[in-house]
UniProtKB/TrEMBL annotation:
Record-stated family: Belongs to the bacterial solute-binding protein 3 family.
SUPFAM superfamilies assigned to the protein according to its UniProt record, in alphabetical order: Lysozyme-like (SSF53955), Periplasmic binding protein-like II (SSF53850)
Cellular compartments per GO CC: cell outer membrane
InterPro entries: Lysozyme-like_dom_sf, Solute-binding_3/MltF_N, Transglycosylase_SLT_dom_1
One example GO MF annotation: peptidoglycan lytic transglycosylase activity
Cross-referenced Pfam families: SLT
Residue span, Solute-binding protein family 3/N-terminal domain: 71-306
Protein's name according to its UniProt entry: Membrane-bound lytic murein transglycosylase MltF
Protein location: Cell outer membrane
Membrane topology: Peripheral membrane protein
Stored Gene3D superfamilies: 1.10.530.10, Periplasmic binding protein-like II
SMART domains (alphabetical): PBPb
Length: 484
């Protein structure tokens, strides 16, 4: 046998062995892949936005670079509790503090050049990664914000020290004396909640864990508290100062001060490690800052009179929903809508009362005006069938004409449709154009375009979309019981 033929035979034998080993291993790899696919994803995995890269950006701006640019880019928690503003009045807890810091920087400018703040709202869990990518100079979360090991960031001097994370429930619900009694029960948590790590430590000492019920990304901490207040969610865990603030406008909340997940966290601002001068300036400011006595005046004035969601799944409400369910399902199916979205809209508009009458000639389950009904080819909006048909066709028309683009995810698409249903499509389109000019995401209603709606029109349309969204989520949690 020649050397060449011997080499070929050995090569063939090795290749055959490799193929056999791959064939034997392939089923195991496929099984592992399937198991990994079944693992649950955290709430942050559902959020739209850039990946959480931790590596520092190419440009880290310290105080001198900030002054030279004339702009301090502040990454703020997008929740209304942290950074909201309504018609020029601040309702977010960080808003006044940040404006005071802006004044502080300008009082201490040696060259007379003023610095202006640019607020960049982001989901809470994206704040520190965005800071490290160089997309901002300062992070002001307004909540506890855990720093993961290895992140090149520095916390400021604490705004509040040793902030307790407490359980919050609804008055009238069962009382618990010890955390151990919550074993096997669930805590509703907004995406990015600092309770994640604290709950892991608590659960390490329990035989049956307390369940973290992560909520939809469209819900911030204030939304979860409102759902607990309505009885839609059983309990949550939030920072004590936030619970105390919202209990002033949500009076049915009960703060369980004795049920603390932890009291080890400080509320702070954050800068990159490579910006020591900016951090020093922040620290000097925070050490001398005192919040004004009327800091929450606008917040209280806005939210005390604002619509608050109710429990939509009581006995009477279920009976009403059952009576109108066939017509809701029929017309939702015809327009490729979720019938529970129509149910949520009907609960907000009329509390599921087909005989309801509103302002401007609006009538029925979905409060449709005769003009709107004629616009979609429905003659009798006073009947239950005509009213639901007209409302469903009008929603579908708005979606088709204005929000059909693949740039929207379905949650945001329907939020824009609801905003246009309430405010008018052209106004919503103008808000989106303004959002684009101001560096906000024009394809995201929640916490982005809604900020401009609150500035321009007040909280009416913001509350409207938020309420329908909450009712939709509440119904969706019970879908298997509500559908035949």
């Amino acid at each position: 046998m020649t050397k060449k033929s011997l080499f070929n035979r050995n090569l063939a034998a090795r290749c055959s062995g490799f193929v056999e080993r791959c064939a034997a291993t392939l089923p195991v790899l496929m099984l592992l892949g399937c198991l990994l696919a079944l693992l649950p994803q955290g709430a942050s995995a559902r959020l739209a936005g850039p990946p959480e890269g931790w590596a520092p950006g190419e440009t880290t701006r310290d105080l001198a670079a900030v002054r030279a640019s004339g702009q301090l880019r502040v990454l703020v928690n997008q929740s209304r509790n942290s950074s909201g503003e309504v018609r020029g009045e601040p309702i977010g807890i960080e808003y006044r503090r940040l404006r005071a810091f802006e004044q502080y920087l300008n009082r201490n400018a040696r060259d007379g050049r003023e610095v202006r703040l640019k607020l960049i709202p982001l989901p809470k869990e994206q704040l520190l990664p965005a800071l490290l990518r160089g997309e901002g100079d300062l992070v002001a979360p307004g909540e506890l914000l855990p720093v993961r090991r290895g992140m090149a960031v520095r916390a400021s001097t604490p705004i509040l020290r040793d902030v307790p994370l407490v359980v919050v429930a609804r008055q009238g619900n069962r009382r618990y004396q010890r955390l151990e009694q919550l074993a096997g029960r669930s805590l509703a948590l907004p995406a990015g909640s600092a309770a994640r790590d604290a709950l892991l430590k608590v659960n390490a000492g329990l035989k049956t864990p307390i369940v973290a019920d992560w909520q939809d990304p469209s819900l911030a901490v204030e939304d979860v508290l409102e759902l607990v207040h309505a009885g839609i969610l059983p309990m949550t865990a939030v920072e004590l100062p936030i619970a105390e603030r919202w209990a002033k406008v949500l009076p049915k909340l009960r703060i369980e001060r004795h049920l603390q997940l932890t009291d080890q966290g400080d509320m702070s601002w954050f800068v990159q490690r490579a910006a020591p001068n900016l951090r020093a300036s922040v620290d000097r400011f925070l050490r001398g800052y005192r919040a004004p006595a009327d800091q929450d005046a606008a917040f209280l004035r806005v939210y005390r009179r604002l619509y608050k969601v109710h429990y939509p799944l009581g006995r009477l409400e279920r009976q009403r929903l059952e009576r109108v369910r066939p017509v809701l399902m029929q017309h939702a199916r015809a327009q490729s809508l979720d019938w529970l979205l129509l149910a949520a809209l009907a609960f907000k508009e009329s509390t599921l009362n087909p005989a309801a009458r509103g302002a401007g000639g609006a009538t029925g389950l979905l409060q449709v005006t005769p003009a709107a009904a004629r616009n979609v080819g429905v003659g009798n909006a006073a009947s239950l069938d005509g009213n639901v048909q007209a409302g469903a066709k009008y929603l579908a028309m708005i979606r088709r004409r204005y929000f059909a683009s693949a740039q929207f995810n379905e949650r945001e698409r329907m939020a824009f449709v609801l905003a246009a249903y309430n405010l008018g499509p052209q106004r919503v389109q103008r808000l989106r154009a303004e959002a684009r000019r101001r560096g906000l995401n024009p394809n995201q209603w929640f916490f982005q375009v809604e900020r401009l709606a609150a500035e321009r029109f007040g909280m009416g349309v913001v509350s409207y979309v938020s309420s329908v969204n909450k009712y939709h989520l509440a119904f969706a949690r019970e879908r298997y019981r509500l559908e035949p």
